[in-house]
Amino acid sequence: MVRQAMATKHTFFTISSLSATFPIKPSESIKMSHNPNRTLIFSYGTLKRGFANHKLMMDLISHNDAVFLGSYVTDLQLPLVQGPYGVPFLLNLPGSSRHRIQGELYSVSDSGLRRLDELEGITRGHYERLPITLRSENDGVVKAEAYYGHRSFAEEMWRKSGEEGYEAYTQELANDYVKRDLRPKDVSFRDAISTFCSIGHS
Question: What positions constitute the catalytic site (predicted)?
Fold first, then answer.
C-alpha cells in the first residue's frame, strides 16, 4: 500500500467553520425526504446496517426518530482506523488519508440524537460530533454531521495506525470488534484509548 505522509499540522473543522467553507444546500432529493428540524448523521462504523450497534438505529427508526436516506462517501479524504477493542474511528485529519470513506446517511430527531451522543461518549472524550461533507452518485454534495474520534487523541491514533487507514468499515474488520459487555469492567474506554495509543512508544 502507498503510504502518505502526515501533515505536521491539521485543521479541525467545527460546525460554524465548515458552514462558512462549504455554503452548500442539500440536494433536492434530500430536501424532500429530510425533515429540516432533524440532524443529518453520517454513520461509517458499527451503527451501519449489519453491524453490532445497528440495533440502536433500528430502534430509532421504529420510533420514528431516524430515517435511512442512503449510502454516501465523504467529500474529503479522511483517516478511518481501528482503536482498542476493534472500535472504528473516523479522524478529523483531512488529507492525511488517500480514502474517501463509505457510509450511510440518516435523518435523526433531537431525542434520537441524544441517544447517539450517549452511545458515542461525546461527554466522555470518546468522540465528538462535527460537520462532514458527503457525496453520492445521485444527490451531489450534502452537509451532515459525523462522530469523529476526539481531537485529543486523533493524531496519536493516526500515528499508532501507521498512517494507514481503510476505505470502509467491513465485516472483516468487524471480526475484531469486542462488544461492551465483554470488555474489562475496571478499565474506562478513555483509558483503553490512551493505552492503545501509547503501546510501543518509548
Answer: 120
Q: Which of 120, 128, 145, 155 is catalytic?
A: 120
Containing structural domain, residue 64 = 15-198
Q: Give Cα 27 to chain centroid, integer Å.
A: 22
Residue 28 lies in a domain: yes
Grid coordinates belonging to 144: 451532515
What 3-state DSSP class applies to 18? Answer: helix
The C-alpha atoms of residue 79 and residue 95 are separated, in whole angstroms, by: 8
Helix 110-120 × helix 54-62 angle, to 10°: 170
Q: What percent of the chain lies above the pLDDT cut of 90?
A: 77
pLDDT in the model for residue 16:
37
With 50 as the cut, is the pLDDT of residue 25 above it? no
Q: Is residue 8 part of a domain?
A: no
Give the separation between CA 173 and CA 107, rounded to whole angstroms: 26
Would residue 120 show up in a list of annotated catalytic residues for this protein? Answer: yes
